[in-house]
Inverse folding.
């Protein structure tokens, strides 16, 4: 338990440490927008179900992009839902292009930006064309880094560009949010050429950034461990090493390690239960369960659920939505 929370005021703790005020404001907004629907079963129960869904990580399903990126918990929850929904792609060994991953993400978040997926593809492919197909595991771990540490990586790209242009470590300025907004897009374009900088100097600059950075960032020790492996490093080489780091993955806490990525006994049991129900359903015909499997997405397609994405998911485990998505 973090003892530093006792040094904060109540307002600072609620706003900065737990984001309770953000969730409370969203809960009230949702209640007012759908008053007739939610007040039927009681306001008290509504708030209980809302915060239960936040706790279980189901609250980001079918929500707008600004909401799913609003807090570290939201980002980690969305990454986990994406994994559980589409891990079957990895089990099948399918390779998908960036545009296909965009389509999958937009099933869960209709306004998810294509730019983030394209930048993720650059991490995976590096020297290959960005429209080349990618495995699910390679894309997923790179997407996790890009999405969860978005602001941090924007700042790192500016630092990297300064070092690449020949500035000494003493003159490299840790970027502010405003300077990142102005320079990050330019830096991304220029970094497509895979040049490299001194790893030790790069590590020092990143550690200085971590000391004053307000957004999520990996631990300095994890960064140092990555950069100690080579004398020089390219920007996208550094991002790929972050994506492969088990320590960083564990710190985020959204995904299992790579050896267990395609294992999800709870989801497998739920799939078996649904398949069994379809097989014995009076509406199933003599062609057997294969027909039932083909009809399953029609019953609860994520696209159909988009019309209801602002409704609170009342089942705390969220297994129905994830199962439906994984069937797709």
């Amino acid at each position: 338990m973090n003892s530093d929370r006792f040094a904060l005021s109540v307002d600072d703790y609620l706003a900065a440490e737990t984001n309770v005020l953000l969730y409370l404001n969203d809960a009230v907004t949702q209640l007012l927008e759908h008053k007739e629907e939610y007040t039927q079963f009681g306001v008290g129960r509504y708030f209980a179900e809302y915060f239960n869904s936040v706790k279980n990580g189901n609250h980001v399903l079918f929500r707008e992009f600004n909401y799913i990126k609003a807090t570290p918990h939201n980002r980690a929850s969305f990454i986990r839902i994406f994994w559980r929904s589409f891990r079957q792609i990895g089990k099948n060994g399918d390779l998908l292009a960036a545009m296909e991953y965009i389509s999958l993400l937009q099933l869960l978040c209709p306004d998810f930006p294509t730019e983030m997926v394209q930048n993720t593809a650059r991490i995976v492919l590096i020297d290959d064309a960005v429209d080349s197909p990618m495995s699910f595991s390679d894309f997923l771990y790179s997407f996790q880094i890009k999405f969860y540490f978005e602001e941090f990586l924007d700042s790192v790209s500016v630092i990297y560009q300064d070092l690449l242009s020949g500035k000494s470590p003493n003159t490299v300025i840790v970027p502010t949010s405003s300077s990142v907004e102005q320079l990050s897009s330019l830096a991304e374009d220029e970094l497509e050429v895979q040049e490299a900088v001194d790893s030790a100097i790069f590590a020092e600059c990143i550690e200085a950034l971590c000391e004053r950075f307000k957004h999520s960032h990996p631990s300095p020790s994890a960064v140092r461990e990555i950069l100690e492996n080579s004398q020089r490093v390219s920007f996208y080489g550094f991002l790929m090493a972050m994506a492969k780091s088990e320590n960083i993955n564990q710190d985020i806490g959204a995904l299992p390690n790579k050896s267990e990525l395609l294992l999800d006994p709870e989801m497998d049991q739920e799939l078996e239960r649904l398949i069994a129900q379809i097989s014995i359903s009076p509406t199933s015909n003599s062609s057997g369960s294969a027909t039932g499997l083909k009809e399953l997405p029609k019953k609860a397609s994520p696209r159909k659920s988009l019309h209801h994405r602002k409704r609170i998911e009342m089942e705390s485990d969220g297994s129905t939505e994830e199962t439906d998505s994984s069937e797709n």
